[in-house]
Specification:
single chain; alpha/beta; Rossmann fold; three-stranded parallel beta sheet; three-stranded mixed beta sheet; globular
C-alpha cells in the first residue's frame, strides 16, 4: 500500500486554509466536491504565466553544447521519492528509458538523490545510452524543453509507453509509477 503524503497534505491544507487560489476551473470544482466553497478563488495558472514571462529568456546554449536537433531527443527527470527510493520502481523506469534511448536520444539532468540511488541499487547498466547531465536551472531546462515536442508517459502497470503532446511544447519524458488515488 502506498501512502500518498502529498495528497494527504493537500486535503488537510485545503480544509484548514482560509484562502484557496486555484489555477484551473477543475481545481475549483474539485474543492466544491469536497464541500469547500468559501475563500476559493480562481486565479489562473501562475506556472504558465511564469513560463510565458520567462520564455524570451530561455537559455538554449545547452542545445548547442550537446548538438541537439528539434524533435530528435526527449528530456526526462526522475526525482520523486516514490520513483527513486524503490529499487523496483526505479529499475522499471530506467529499463524503459534504456529501450527508448535505442530509438531516440534521451537527455537526463539527474537529481542528486536519483544519482545516489542508481549507484546504491546497482542500476548503472540501464543508463549507458542515456545522456546524464548535471541538474539544470529553470532557464536552461526550459531552453531544452522548448524545442522538443516529444513527451513519454510510461505506466509501470502496463509497461506501455505512448507519446503525448502538451500546450506550448512544454514537454518532458515522464516515467513514473502510477499511484492509486485516495
Amino acid at each position: 500500500m502506498f501512502i500518498i503524503y502529498e495528497e494527504i497534505n493537500r486535503v488537510l491544507t485545503d480544509h484548514v486554509s482560509k484562502y484557496l487560489f486555484c489555477p484551473s476551473k477543475l481545481a475549483t470544482n474539485n474543492l466544491k466536491k469536497e464541500n469547500i466553497t468559501e475563500g476559493v478563488y480562481f486565479t489562473g495558472d501562475i506556472m504558465y504565466d511564469l513560463f510565458l514571462k520567462m520564455k524570451p529568456h530561455f537559455d538554449e546554449n545547452i542545445i548547442k553544447k550537446f548538438d541537439l536537433e528539434e524533435n530528435k531527443y526527449i528530456l526526462t527527470t526522475i526525482h520523486r521519492d516514490f520513483n527513486t527510493d524503490s529499487k523496483s520502481n526505479l529499475e522499471a523506469i530506467l529499463k524503459e528509458l534504456d529501450k527508448i534511448s535505442k530509438e531516440i536520444k534521451v537527455i537526463f539532468p539527474i537529481h542528486p538523490r536519483t544519482k545516489k540511488r542508481i549507484e546504491e541499487f546497482d542500476l548503472k547498466q540501464y543508463t549507458k545510452n542515456i545522456l546524464m547531465i548535471e541538474p539544470l536551472d529553470y532557464l536552461s531546462m526550459m531552453g531544452l524543453r522548448r524545442i522538443t515536442k516529444r513527451s513519454v508517459l510510461c505506466r509501470k502497470k502496463s509497461n506501455s509507453c505512448y507519446a503525448r503532446y502538451r500546450l506550448e511544447r512544454i514537454n518532458r519524458c515522464r516515467l513514473e509509477y502510477t499511484k492509486p488515488t485516495l
